[in-house]
Amino acid sequence: MTITKDAITQQSLPRHVAIIMDGNGRWAQAKGKPRVFGHKKGVESVRNAVKFCRQLNIESLTLFAFSSENWRRPEQEVTTLMELFMFVLTNEVKKLDKNNVKLKVIGDISRFSEKLQKSVVKAEQMTENNTGLTLNVAANYGGQWDIAQAAKQLAKQVERGELCADDIDENALSQYISMNEQAPLDLLIRTGGDLRISNFLLWQAAYAELYFTETLWPDFNEQAFADAIACYVSRERRFGCTGEQIKELLAQS
Ligand code: IPE
Ligand code: IPE
Ligand code: MG
To answer: Which residues bind Mg(2+) (predicted)?
Structure first.
């Protein structure tokens, strides 16, 4: 499926896209190279994805860079991933800033080195007033962690006497869930062929369209991204309503 700019309206495009960038290791291994070679190549796909979202005026792009479970990987691989993260943060942030991109890191960064934590804060501060694409990088992120940290904040409010436990509902919890200030997640893409969420955006994905592709992350280029968007545009989102109700709503707008 291909996509042409004229055939789609901004309204039909997703406002918020998230990607589980999977398949770097297999991509490298297929070429007889060490896994880290795939991670390095994957950075190019990140650049392309950011550019693509900027061109389509997508509001938020959320990338799964390192999961809370990825610490279980061989020490050498974890170290390389951290170094790469540090390198990208320090070297790409100026370009992101120039392109009006707002960078946010989501996840429990307290487990990272002091140096890395400082770079994260600096990069976020440098770009915080930008009004173009918001790029969320999920690092040491887990969907279950996100829900637990939101619950903890509500519990603290109850402890301070600011909130009654009986008043806790979905709205109250969602206030503290990562990226609550941004557009709701519309499309969740996973590359690399596996059909699972791997503890990514559990709360936020409640009504997201899911798109799985066999393409390995280092091969995920503009065409592959356009195919995912075209697939999203062709789907009918009902949010629990019937198709007829949605059509009536559209006719009114
Ligand atoms: C995803 O690629 C990148 C990270 C988890 C950081 P993988 O490293 O999981 O690659 P595969 O799935 O082993 O091919
Ligand atoms: C998910 O990929 C995490 C990231 C892309 C950062 P994994 O390769 O870690 O997921 P599993 O282990 O196959 O579920
Ligand atoms: Mg993987």
So the answer is: 22, 209
